[in-house]
Amino acid sequence: MTVMTVEQIEHFLDDVFPQHMGKIESVGDMRATMRLTIGHEHLRPGPRVSGPTMMGFADVALYVAILAQIGPEPMAVTSDLNCHFLRAASGEHDIIAHAKLIKLGRRLAVGEVLIVSAADETKPVIHVTASYVLPDKA
Amino acid sequence: MTVMTVEQIEHFLDDVFPQHMGKIESVGDMRATMRLTIGHEHLRPGPRVSGPTMMGFADVALYVAILAQIGPEPMAVTSDLNCHFLRAASGEHDIIAHAKLIKLGRRLAVGEVLIVSAADETKPVIHVTASYVLPDKA
Amino acid sequence: MTVMTVEQIEHFLDDVFPQHMGKIESVGDMRATMRLTIGHEHLRPGPRVSGPTMMGFADVALYVAILAQIGPEPMAVTSDLNCHFLRAASGEHDIIAHAKLIKLGRRLAVGEVLIVSAADETKPVIHVTASYVLPDKA
Amino acid sequence: MTVMTVEQIEHFLDDVFPQHMGKIESVGDMRATMRLTIGHEHLRPGPRVSGPTMMGFADVALYVAILAQIGPEPMAVTSDLNCHFLRAASGEHDIIAHAKLIKLGRRLAVGEVLIVSAADETKPVIHVTASYVLPDKA
């Protein structure tokens, strides 16, 4: 059901988006799981994981889920992103993003992401939904 | 895990919010399922189910999921509601809302709802997330 | 800057979407203002104006602002809609929607709407943002 | 109408949130304007300003607008944040955030932000709305 492996997606991402956060743990039918090791640049006072870190990480995880379905397309563009902050994420633990595509249409993809802290994977720290405009087929 | 039965919630809703849409099919731990029979007032041209109908129905389904957890509290107030429209829902079939609470805190609850058409329950027609301000405990 | 008059848009709406709520008060460059007289079908207990009424009314007001710019196109489709509920709107007064397009691109339009009660036009009751997928040009 | 000056807010922010992005240009009644000089850490390929940079910057600008109204309160917590990406922002120019509070209640504040590129201040690059849970008054 997927057209790229984890390794292929990692290579593609390193090429087109070298600053991206996180490592892919797995991809599957309409979904992806990624893990981010927290560095100083991801923190805000607490220390806890900053909001922009979590929003950007969620965005990458959905992009990975899209790539796994449609193949190496550098031009999927985020059109909207909505998030609910649920609890603080300790800066001393990795965070893990579970991304799921809700719809993959011809022109638009919609997905959701739940991010948890490795400190307690049962309590989500942020929930994100986002839409992507897909490239026109040549 | 729930503190009210389907019947208790239906009676409570009929009392505090008689105009509410839909019937409760089941409630469970942090979740509720409701079904709406489509009438003329729910349609837009097509005929398909109108956007306000689906948004309002999602809101009721999350309110029901909250009631099932916290008991008869008339004052949970929707503070934000976000939706992605995924596909048209035929006006000739019921719609079914699957609501799930993502967080139930002391002051805020956050949940998501996937609505499907009874014509094809595998293809969601709308995805909604929403937040609720909970009443202060006396 | 607009390509349709209020009268032309009203006729077009009556034709393609006869169930639409509200009357157009004015349209202008990237904006529209509409007024809704509240009837029994728009109420929830209080009585106050229901959430679905306000969300649906905001959606129509943005559609009108788009029509005023691009002409009679029946197929602009709402792709996402986000709202923050700010205060209760009394069911005894009209509500007024001020819609403004933030972006009108080739494929997507994005806009925002502030709805006020005629009882106090300085205190908004809901803020809405939404995106629309525009029809392909023939 | 404001209870803190730009200098007081800058000092307070440096104290409680030293990693924050941008400089305050002005604050006023229910609003704030900030400017961000783009560095390497804010870029994605293009080079253009990254999404997390813009989302984080919008969040800071709304927090500044809240501080200007309620005084030094370290505990306003972002509860939801929604954004529409409108166009790419060149990585070679500053970005400017115009933040406006739509509602400042006892428990919740809601605001919106329009970010423009200094390259063309008439074309917004992102529109953000967000909610904040305010600290309980002692």
TrEMBL record, chains A, B, C, D:
GO terms for molecular function: hydrolase activity. InterPro entries: HotDog_dom_sf, PAAI_dom, Thioestr_dom. It holds the Pfam family 4HBT. It comes from the Bacteria. Residues 49-120 form the Thioesterase domain. The keyword Transferase does not apply. Keywords: Hydrolase. Its EC number is 3.1.2.-. NCBIfam families: unchar_dom_1. This is PaaI family thioesterase. It comes from Vreelandella vilamensis.
